[in-house]
Amino acid sequence: MALSAQTASRGLSSRYVQDAQQQHPAVLQEFGGADTSQRGAYVEQVGRRVAAYSGVNPASFRYTTLNSAVENAFAVPGGYIYITRQLMGLMNDEAELAFVLGHETGHVAANHAQARQSASQRNAIGGILGSILGSVLGGGIGNIIGQLAQTQSQLSTLQFSRAQEYDADRLGIGYLNRAGYDPGASSTMLAALGRATALEARVQGQDSRSTPEWASTHPLSENRVAQASQMARQTGRVGTGLRNRDQFLNQLEGVFVDDDPAQGVIEGRMFTHPDLRLQFTVPTGYLMQNGSDAVSIQGSAGQAQFRASRYTGNLQSTITQRFQQLTGGRTQIQIVDSNRTTINGLPVEYAIARAQTSSGVVDVSVFAYAFDNDTAYDFTMLTRGGQGVGPFSSMVSSLRRIGAQEAAAIRPRVIDVYSVRTGDTPQSLAGRMAYRNYQLERFLSLNGLAANSRLVPGQRVKLVVYGQRR
């Protein structure tokens, strides 16, 4: 039974609330939109339940489930709290959901945002290409390419200090306890995140999928899991509160896992967009990150982005636009090569330019493709001076149209909540997972099971299977 909610509550800064309201549509656009189904309403209900013990008016908070393939939750100071469907897929009961929402609520209630260093932490969602290229090609280059990678969203995600993370854990555990949940869900949730992070590190190279910078806002450690466990035990109620496992799993049935085909799918080194009827392959060793309006590619020899633009019969205008976005008109570039060609039946124009930067000479290449009467696509690539498009030669030659049959074959991965039957084992059920590799490891991680776990008939577990497109 939940304890009585706090009667005294305060509101949030009107400036923060206004900022959050203004940023919200851009956040939705950037991260695949909001879940407006009963599942989204369920998350909102759980969030408000824990927010009732935060000392802030629960009506000040808004909880949104995002259609994103990245495991994360984050909050903005104005009380807007976001959780991705991918993170929900890791959870095994409502109490773990309540802890995550309580943790984010705690960041807002404790005004942690006021202590951040705004100069270095703003625009963590935007500027993907600019923020990572400096580490590959040398310091200073990010100033040149920052304009290319800016997104619609200017949300400042919060990268809190370790002390603030521990404080939010403490607050979340307190809310969890007072709301009547099992406070032990805090450590089981953090442990689940740790397992998923470790597994992702193992499979990332084979999947050619990179984790975006905004997903690293909550660094995990064994110490954090241990401290959460200790704080939960201090309540004296571990194992006695609500878990609501069945209610949660019922909500999780059918949730998309990984990419939504409507946003394009990364499979190995291949990116396929069934709705746009296109496909390309990145070089071996390169990683992709799928955003709302661009696919970013990164590797040891350079960076690239793939995106669409309006086609008016002149591919040169697309090339010029990309160069202008890249330099912001502040850096001189010299065209060293340009031409027209045809790739896989698509008319193509390209230009390779060279720029002098504080960290050396950089080559900028743009390949623009006339895809149909209205749309052009392009790769914009940055490499070390003298390399040109070299590291990306196979990629620019791989873009092609796909047919209706190929497009129809792209199906989403979804969660199937399965009741264990006699004779089922982790190994046998793992064989049903819709992956080509690490099937057993994924099954165990998803369900919080050990390798030697024995399944009991009637036990409900999560599988990831192929589903139907919406």
Automatic annotation (TrEMBL):
Boundaries of each LysM domain copy? 416-463
**Pfam families associated with the record:** LysM, Peptidase_M48
InterPro entries xrefs: LysM, Mito/Outer_Membr_Metalloprot, Peptidase_M48
What domain of life does the UniProt record list for this protein's source?
Bacteria
Q: Which GO terms describe its molecular function?
A: metallopeptidase activity
Which cofactor(s) does the record list? Zn(2+)
User: Which keywords does UniProt give here?
Assistant: Hydrolase, Metal-binding, Metalloprotease, Protease, Zinc
| CDD domains the record matches | LysM, M48C_Oma1-like
PANTHER family for the chain: METALLOENDOPEPTIDASE OMA1 (PTHR22726), METALLOENDOPEPTIDASE OMA1, MITOCHONDRIAL (PTHR22726:SF1)
The entry's protein name is M48 family metalloprotease
Originating species: Sphingomonas swuensis
